[in-house]
Specification:
With about 350 residues, the chain is of the alpha+beta class. It contains 6 helices and 20 strands.
């Protein structure tokens, strides 16, 4: 992130306009130009910004469908501004923020500033970017929301973008924020995730429970070690069902350290994967106050020709006397983004819900 750019471009978090000012200089657009009610929305725009395109239109190379393009009609009289609304229908649960960063990367946008939001349906982002077109530097503000599909499985991920020339950003920064912040779906659902959740509830080795996305298959594995409980989670990647997550639970007889737990359980992989146990670093999970401690580490898993690259991530921690050791194997985001994002989100849901009875 460019700190110099941050100081150059304000990043307001709230609109300071009075209600009277908004009534005089803004208008509310109601979009119903598609047969799908799940895509109907309302958006508040400056009076001089008018609809240019309302027919659903595919955006090449991004996998998005544009369902709204609005521009300043008389740019010679007022500073030019453009607002875009687009969406992608996605079948599996992932974070809205991860999806937005992926789209921004495809678009070649440089992030100047950002802020993130958390809810039960995942992480979301509000992002300020810049990109040069020829000799013109454009500043854009993006927001992402998602909503479960009422007419099909999965969820719609919405991108709302407001942009202007760099030279006009100081004047239009709040107009951009107003346009993305006051976007609402007319038929919004209470459930925002792309999938429903299933749960595991067990009394062994101690009472434990967690949620996971419904598209994953869970199997309890047999273990020869007394007091060790093992679950494996599989998901379809490409055309194959593959085990991508391992969950181990135990209650040690004596005091142990997270690195010892990781090294001990990782031994079964060292001769197979030819890698050593990762060095753990302490982590923080703000979504689950039940976790007494959490540590994480990762190692690269590459084929000999390094064409196939994966990363193995380990999470180790405890909830009172119950210790857990989790493994997840995923491709790198830049290689297979959707697989990476789905695996990452599944692991987050498990960690966020582990013995977190406030969610039950």
């Amino acid at each position: 992130m460019n700190n110099i750019s941050q100081s150059q471009f304000p990043f307001p978090k709230q609109v300071s306009y009075s209600i009277d000012y908004q009534k005089e200089y803004f208008w509310r657009c109601v979009y119903t130009s598609t047969s799908s009610e799940a895509l109907h929305y309302k958006i508040v725009l400056p009076l001089q910004v008018k609809p240019i395109l309302t027919k659903p239109t595919e955006i090449e190379d991004l996998g998005l469908t544009m369902i709204g393009l609005y521009r300043t009609l008389k740019a010679e009289e007022t500073p030019y501004m453009e607002v875009t609304v687009a969406y992608e229908a996605i079948g599996n649960e992932m974070n809205g923020s991860d999806w937005l960063y992926h789209i921004l990367d495809l678009m070649g946008e440089e992030i100047i500033n950002k802020r993130t939001f958390f809810s039960e349906s995942g992480e979301y982002a509000d992002v300020l970017t810049q990109k040069t077109y020829g000799t013109e530097n454009m500043i854009a503000r993006y927001r992402v929301i998602k909503d479960s599909g009422t007419e099909s499985e999965g969820a719609n991920f919405f991108l709302i973008k407001a942009t202007c020339h760099e030279k006009n950003y100081a004047v239009l920064s709040e107009d951009l924020l107003q346009s993305i912040a006051w976007f609402t779906l007319i038929h919004e659902n209470e459930w925002k995730m792309a999938e429903s959740l299933k749960s595991i509830n067990s009394e062994y080795p101690e009472p434990l429970s967690f949620y996971y996305p419904a598209s994953w298959s869970v199997q309890q594995e047999e273990e020869d070690v007394p007091g060790l409980s093992h679950y494996s989670l599989s998901h379809i990647t490409g055309q194959e069902q593959k085990k991508m997550i391992n969950l181990f639970f135990m209650v040690p007889e004596k005091k142990v350290a997270a690195q010892f737990v990781s090294d001990t359980l990782f031994q079964r992989l060292e001769n197979v994967l030819h890698v050593q146990s990762p060095e753990l670093k302490q982590a923080v999970n703000k979504r689950n106050a039940r976790l007494d401690q959490l540590w994480t580490g990762c190692v690269e898993l590459n084929s000999e020709d390094k064409i196939k690259r994966h990363i193995l991530t380990v999470h180790v921690g405890s909830v009172e006397s119950l210790w857990f050791y989790f493994e997840q194997i995923s491709p790198y985001a830049e290689q297979r983004f959707y697989d990476w994002a789905v695996i990452k989100r599944a692991q987050e849901i498990i960690l966020n819900s582990l013995n977190n009875y406030d969610l039950l």
